[in-house]
UniProtKB/TrEMBL annotation:
GO CC annotation: cytosol
Protein name, UniProt field: Cytidine deaminase
InterPro entries: APOBEC/CMP_deaminase_Zn-bd, CMP_dCMP_dom, Cyt/Deoxycyt_deaminase, Cyt_deam_tetra, Cytidine_deaminase-like
Protein's organism: Portunus trituberculatus
Transmembrane segments: none
Length: 165
């Protein structure tokens, strides 16, 4: 077999490809996305928890769509910042995402999206970036597939093909 030249793969150790490398955000894009999520976070409606969360999606065509958490006196109706952003994006005709930044004040840690939000993100792809950030702009980078491994994803499920009986 012919010797091939070295190829950088990554950034993850779980099967990342050159295609994934091309999707990586520049430092400037990351900063802009975190800033957008921080702006959105100021609008959080969270009179019950007082826990403000902001989210900003970067679409494949380069637009930024934000969301914040919106709470309700009927607590279970609360909508997280991530889902607000995704619903807003879809309503604007956007379904292809490169990344999402999610910001909250978590001390030395980073906000971990709830299970419902993880499932909402995976609806729109496994292989895109998630920046979990704090108001002082420290961030941890991960991906949707790492947040929700072995997920129930449209990529694996074919509905309505095989009907028994
Ligand atoms: N929250 C989000 O908006 N996103 C998260 O990733 C974690 C939790 C909101 C929901 C609720 O308004 C508040 O934070 C406290 O749980």
């Amino acid at each position: 077999m012919a010797q091939s030249s070295p190829q950088q793969v990554g950034p993850s150790s779980c099967g990342a490809t050159i295609a994934e490398m091309e999707k990586i955000l520049t430092d400037e894009e990351v900063e802009r996305l975190i800033d957008a999520s921080l702006d959105a976070r100021r609008n959080a409606y969270c009179p019950y928890s007082k826990f403000q969360v902001g989210a900003a999606l970067l679409t494949k065509d380069g637009s930024t769509i934000t969301g914040c958490n919106v709470e309700n006196i009927s607590y279970g109706l609360t909508i997280c910042a991530e889902r607000t952003a995704v619903c807003r994006a879809v309503a604007e005709g956007q379904r292809k995402f490169r990344a999402i930044a999610i910001t909250a004040e978590m001390g030395t840690r980073f906000v971990g999206p709830c299970g419902a939000c993880r499932q909402t993100l995976v609806e729109f792809g496994l292989d895109w970036e998630v920046y979990l950030a704090t108001p002082d702009k420290r961030y941890m980078k991960t991906t949707v597939s790492r947040l929700i491994p072995d997920s129930f994803s449209p990529e694996w499920v074919t509905l309505g093909e095989r009907q028994e009986g």
